[in-house]
Design goal:
The protein is α/β, with parallel strands linked by helices. The protein is 40% helix and 19% strand. A hairpin with a 5-residue loop joins strand 2 and strand 3.
Length: 192
């Protein structure tokens, strides 16, 4: 998973980009809701082509939903000049600091999934949540978040050429430096 994430991290998104926030993580009795300590905050972005079809995705865990954290994420994951559309969450203005255009639609009482402008980012987030809930009955998502998110994005981004994806994954795994056990078991780095 680390090799997949590393390979995919080298290609930023460009063009028209849908951006949204989400939380993933386990439920604890008596502890829940947005921002609870057992949930990991995520930023998800999907670039679309001229016909509005999804091309590539970037998903990353961040420490907090702040303008600075989103700007740091955007500098690493978006090409300057891309046109980013969000639901108006204040922290998403951080993409402007990374040299991107930003437009937003205030969703109000509607849910972003009800708006066609956010169809693909919400579809990707739904698929991610289904994968996590279906394949992993219990695990410490916070500890390995970047590994799971990177592997999910890599598979999505290479879905048009499955044979090349296998070759590229093997090449990336074979040519990267060895990963020590403490690195695998350690906390994955979150974007500031």
């Amino acid at each position: 998973m680390a090799a997949m994430a590393q390979c995919d991290a080298q290609q930023p998104l460009d063009g028209d980009v849908q951006l949204d926030d989400a939380y993933l993580g386990g439920e604890r009795p008596g502890v829940g809701g947005r921002g609870s300590p057992n949930k990991v905050p995520l930023v998800a972005a999907v670039s679309t082509n001229d016909k509005g079809h999804p091309m590539r995705v970037k998903i990353a865990a961040i420490k907090t939903f702040s303008r600075e954290a989103v700007a740091s994420w955007a500098r690493a994951n978006l090409l300057p000049g891309c046109d980013v559309r969000s639901d108006g969450l204040a922290c998403f203005a951080g993409v402007i600091d990374a040299g991107c255009a930003h437009s937003y639609i205030v969703v109000g009482t509607r849910k972003p999934r009800e708006l066609p402008q956010f169809t693909w980012v919400n579809t990707v987030l739904g698929n991610l949540k289904t994968m996590v809930n279906g394949a992993h009955k219990w695990f410490r998502f916070g500890k390995y978040a970047q590994h799971y998110l990177g592997a999910f994005a890599y598979r999505f981004n290479n879905r048009f050429d499955l044979a090349a994806m296998l070759t590229a994954t093997i090449r990336q795994a074979a040519t990267r430096r060895p990963t020590r056990e403490r690195q695998v078991r350690g906390m994955a780095e979150l974007h500031d």
